[in-house]
Amino acid sequence: MSQLDPKESNPILDFALNYEYPPYKDQTGTDKVVAFGDASHKCPIYVEQRPPCNDACPAGNDIRAWLTTVQQIETKKLSKEEVYRMLWNEVSKTQPLPAVCGRVCPNPCEGGCNRNEKEGSVSINAFERWLGDYAILNGFDHEKLTDDVRPETIAVVGSGPAGLSCAFQLARRGYKVTIFEAFKETGGMLRYGIPPYRLPRNIIDAEVAAIERMGVEIRCNTVIGKDISLDELKEKYDAVYLAIGAHKGIRLGLEGEDAPNVMTGAEFLNRVHSGEKVDVGDQVVVIGGGDTAIDAARVSLRLGADKVTILYRRTRNEMPAIDPEIEEALEENVDIQFLTAPIGIVSENGRAVAVKCQRMELGEPDKSGRRRPVAIEGSEFEVPCSILIPSISQEPEWLDAERYISGRDWLKPKKDWSLEDGVFAGGDAVNLGLVCGAIGDGRKAAESIHAKFTGEFPPLEEKKVIKAKDMSLEYYEDAERSERGHLAPEVRVKDGLETEIDQGITEEQFIKEAHRCMSCGLCFDCRQCVSFCPHGTIKRYKDNPVGEVMYTKYSECEGCHLCQLICPCGYIQMGGAEGL
Using CA atoms, how far apart are residues 195 and 518, in angstroms rounded to an integer? Predict the structure, then answer.
């Protein structure tokens, strides 16, 4: 295990280095004097490290704190209701949309979880959803950081996850925030891109309402550049945050795609989710391999299509869509034809009736890191269609924001998320990404806006990420991972767009998953070090929270390293001159 850098500020290390230790007798009865700086003597130092789940979360959530908070139902003998309220306050520091993210986030945090080295990661995403739903059911409100009202006013353009997150974080700090939304309802791509069978609309409404209760004003049906200019916003407000999203689908560039039955995936989903009746016919062809393509295909099934085909020019391994969504599409009998690329559109009477295709094979990797598709000569064929839905990518619609770009460039903010003095940007308009990433963008921009007015910057966290190899995994008992319940394919397609497929986890599973957390890199009060210390030099604080539990009587420590060896979570390191 690596050692600490003595140049880094650490109160415990500073104390140990400067303390004048009294003499003590070793196990043989010989008088000794502790010299902490000697290479021959090392004492335990308690060093919090960054868990990989936190490190992998684009929203910046302290997932370890979430999970270990629930563990206090037993460790602190608190009631469930007390702990759930404590957990909610912890979650809402960085996450205003837990019930939303608990449904649509592809959970990169779980990929980093050290529990993968045992029987599987903690079900963090399902845990998050359960808490979000519980908060909605019980009417939980977010806590503000201050009761003071600041004089500055902020305009946020867009009520998608980035805009909502930025507005929320600023409202927590006492700012008066107004969100301007172009559509008639809030949520951005959460509402107009993601189908309700994945994300029920009442969930979006409830979590947006909680943000509004923080004092955030939302004005829908207001298009910046049409109803009000960006210059007017800059004049009226002290700062502006652009979170305009990327709602414009990219076209194929093929002759015939201006037909009325050819529309991009973004346009198709927007029409359907806006309540417009879209006739998909009996044979739908979708082009692309991302989440929008999968959503468009599955929505088409629910609108009555007999056959839905997805054409994707690479293989399943390269498909960027969320894996569970691909699996569910296949369960619903969506036909995914891999290594197939469109090369033309067959039209009759002004409508697309088929797609000309060509078989592909994978060559060398391109700049994305994925192997480049190469056409196989003489492999052309046609796929008939009643509607064609290209879903290859999306881009922002700029309007007034075009002053910050050139050509087809996207918004490119500086490190502090500013485009110019007083104007900031984030979310999909900067880079297409995950909902949790957009939430993280909004929070970071809010912190920069707050720093602009106060000079208060968030502290930099430079903790080492702890890996499974630095822990004692054998301490933790095997515990089977809790999986969500799902509706059967034949039921969910028949029930249409509104019936939610993912049934989540139970309260019992929620608590169980919290206890599966290994508290990587932070004391969770297992008391192994206290029990195994041969001289009783490690003591336990009373009534301190988890993470500030143990201390060492350095004057009696002989540096045997046993506490470090048996510490399950890797919180204890040995400090001394050697290796420091």
Answer: 35
Average pLDDT of the residues in 203-229: 96
DSSP 160: S
Residue 202: closest CA among 218, 185, 182, 221: 185
Tokens representing 507?
């309260």
Which residues touch 440 (CB under 8 Å, ≥6 apart)? 57, 58, 59, 60, 94, 165
**Where does the pLDDT of residue 19 fall: very low under 50, low under 70, confident under 90, or very high at 90 and above?**
very low
Residue 6 lies inside a defined structural domain of this protein: no
DSSP state of 370: S
In a shared domain, residues 157 and 91:
no
For residue 59, being part of any structural domain is answered with yes
- In terms of domains, do 323 and 298 share one? yes
Domain assignment of residue 91, given as a range: 55-141+485-514
The pLDDT of residue 35 is 45
pLDDT (mean) for 434-446: 97
Higher pLDDT, 179 or 46: 179
**538 and 506 belong to one structural domain:** no
Residue type for position 105? C
pTM of structure:
0.89
- pLDDT, residue 548, reads 56
pLDDT of residue 543: 58
Side-chain-side CA neighbours of residue 78 (13 Å): 16
Show the DSSP H helices in 180-335 as ranges. 189-192, 201-212, 230-236, 265-273, 291-302, 323-331
Residue ending a domain, among 357, 374, 392, is 392
